[in-house]
Structure formats: C-alpha cells, structure tokens
Amino acid sequence: MTLTASPQELSVVRAGRREWTALGVLMLPLLLVSMDVSVLYFAIPSIAADLRPGATQQLWILDMYGFVLAGLLVTMGSLGDRVGRRKLLLVGAGLFGAASLAAAYADTPGTLIGARALLGVAGACLMPSTLALIRTLFQDPAQRAKAVTLWTTVMASGISLGPVVSGALLEHFWWGSVFLINLPAMVLLLVLAPVLLGESRGDAGGARFDVLSAGLSLAALLPVIYGVKELAKGGWAPVPASGIAVGVLLGLVFVRRQARLSHPMVDLRLVRTPAYGGSVLVSLLAMAATVGFAVFLTQYLQSVLGQSPLEAALWSLVPAGGVMVAAPLAAAVAQRVDRAYVMGGGFLVSAGGFAWLAAVDRATPLWVVLVGSAVYAAGLVSALTLANELALGAAPPERAGAAAAVLEAGSELGGALGMAVLGSIGAAVYTAAMPSSAPAAARETLGGALGGAPGVVDAARNAFVSAMSGAAVGASALMLLAALLSLVVLRRRV
User: How many CA atoms lie within 13 A of 297 on its CB side?
Assistant: First the structure.
C-alpha cells in the first residue's frame, strides 16, 4: 500500500515562529524524561550508602522507572487522543515535578521506589504527548521532518547526558540533586505550554476510555520487558521465562480485543500499513543494537581502560558529534531521494561502524574506538529519525498520540531485546575465551574477575574485549536486517 498526500496536506499552512518556539518548549520534558533512564547510574552508590537498600530494592530503584514508563506508554498515548494531548502533557509535567521532589527527599528505599514509579507514570504522559503534538504543530512534511529530527536527537542525547549530569552534580551536591534539576524545566513547561500550545485530540474524544484494554496492555508489556531484562542479567530462569510467556498470551488477548472495538486503543489497520508497521519494526531493531551494545562500550571504557565513571561518560559523548551532523543531513537528503534508500544507507553505515568495532583488541587506541562508535551512531540515529518521521506522517492526526506511543513502546521493547540478545552473545564469547583454570566468578563476568590475581584480571579483560567484538558482530547483523527491511518494506512509502 502506498500512502499519498491528501489535498488537505497539499495546502497546509507552514509553521511559524510560534510553532518552533513551542517545539523548543516540548524538548524540555523530552530531554529530562530520557535523562531519567540513566541519571542514577552514578548516584546509586551514594543512595546505597544513605538509604541502605537491600540488593532487590536497589535493582527496583534502578529499574522501576523504565518498567512503568514502558508499560504505560500505549495507555497514555490513547488517553491523550481522547482527553487532549496538551492536557495530558500538563498533567504529566505537574506529576513529574512532584515525583522528582519526592524522590530527592526520599528517606527510605520504599519511598524512593514509589517516587520512581510515579516518575514513570509522568514520563508516560509526557513522551507520547510531545511526539503527537509535533504531528499537529507541523502539518508541512518538510518542517515535520526537521522537528522529528530534533525530537530524536534530543531523546538520544538525554540518555547519553544522564550519566554526565549525574556525575557532575555528585561532585558538588548530594544524590537528591539529580532529581531536583527536573523542577525548573517542569515549572517553565507549565507556564509556557498553555500559551504556546493549542489543545488537540482525536476523533474518539467522546468515546469511553477502555479501562480493560489499558489493563491488558500494561499486563502484557510489563512481564515481557521484565522477563527479557532478567534473562539478559542472569541467564535462563523459570520465573522471567514464564513472565515472557504470560505477557505474550495477554498481548494476543489485547490484539483480539482491539480488532473488535470501534475506537480501539491501538489501530491495527495502521499497524498493518507498511509505512507505519515497517517503521516501528526497524526502530525496534535500531534500539536493540543501540542499547544492547552500549552496555559493552560503557564497561570497556571503565573496566578495561580503567577510566573513572565521569571520564567514561564524557568520552561516550564524543560519538554524539557524528549524530549532530548526520541526522539533519539525512533529513535533507530524504526530501529529494526516496527515504527508504536514505534509511537503508544509514543502517548500512551503522553496520559498518559496528563491524569496525568488531576488530578492536586490547592494543587498539581509544580514538579508533570512538571513531567507530561515531560512525555507527551517526548512521543509526539518522535512519531512526527518518523512521520516526515516516511513522508519524503515516498516522492520521486524530490517532497521533496512540501512534507515537506504540512507536515508543516498540523502542523500549527493542532495547530490552537488545540487552538480552547481544548480552547473551557477549556472555558466551567471554566464557569461551576465559581459561578453564580461572575462578568461577571470573569466568562468568569481568566484574567477578576484577580484584583477583593480575593474570586473571588480564585474561578477563582480553576475554571481555572479545565479547564486545562478538556483540558488535551481532549489532552489525541487526543493522543489515534493518537496512534490508527498509529497502523492501518502506520503498516508495511517502
């Protein structure tokens, strides 16, 4: 099916200064919501010393935000289409600020876990609302492409900036400061959004909200993402595997229900269109490669090269320079060339960058690793930006919230799958590369080897570099698959 521009789209009014200013305001919550995924990476030792959480509580402090955010994206996207996207954005901003304040001054592990859960609820209100409002603010396809390019770049930058901001704040303040930085931006959003943003909602505004579908979407996504992440961390276990099975079954029930509703939470007809469904699929693959490999690169900088956490975080920002140049360039080229070819080219460039990193060994200079990382990041984010723009353009304005939410939920699931798949590849290579005479803990992870005998530590670092190379090969294969899907499924989709 080829999507063509309607007469209304051919006569759209171009956005002016007000709309671009509104876009700048929308970037505030997006930056902070994406930062909160990674902002605790450096703060957790301080939190552990202050609140003394148990091992399980510490994991929930880290993971609760991402679990709740992913589980509620579809629900909140659909709710925004019904009650109004600006209204949901403002509710999310108020809740995000209140939850940030509660997290900053939490005095028990349970309080902090609860505050992180509320932050996830607020983030699920904010993220699909920002992307859906872009769909209504920018009706001109060329302008919308630029806006989505900025949206994708800011989202990716937020995840990278989280550890850097956290590390910088902890140099001077207590751990609660990583949450308090959210407050000024949320206050600014609450003040400016009513002035700059008009309200928009879908054609189901009068329809009754489907609570059962909302519950099913949450019950399907949460156990799948939890199960995949747990399998990635600890290998095969019956509980997370059962969680995935239950989530898949509930997902099938959810899909059957959507097919029967006159105003479904997820429009299955839209998902079946190549422009939208294909974009969601390649976005999932892109996030799988990004998140799955990022774990290895972070450990390489710290545990192999011996950098401090803040130093490693700063070096990890270098590849963002390639993204800043490549993403706008790809968007401009896509105005003149079938975007499927541009996306396919971007994924091929990314595959080349990962292949470059597959050749890294202990003697490889840091600049070589950073160049390879910049290449894969530039190609991947450029293609991902075009996929997001294509998916958003394929969705009718009245379904923009739900369409944005499904796209983002797919990305969250892709990240979890990437950690599982690439993590499993890396673990297998690491174990095979370690000498059989090494202690059991050292043969399982690099962290288990650090602090041991010098010979064991050296062998573990060599084995980890081999594991990172194996993960890079897996990521490169994912990018080749994404390039193939782009050319086969998305060609001539406008």
Answer: 30
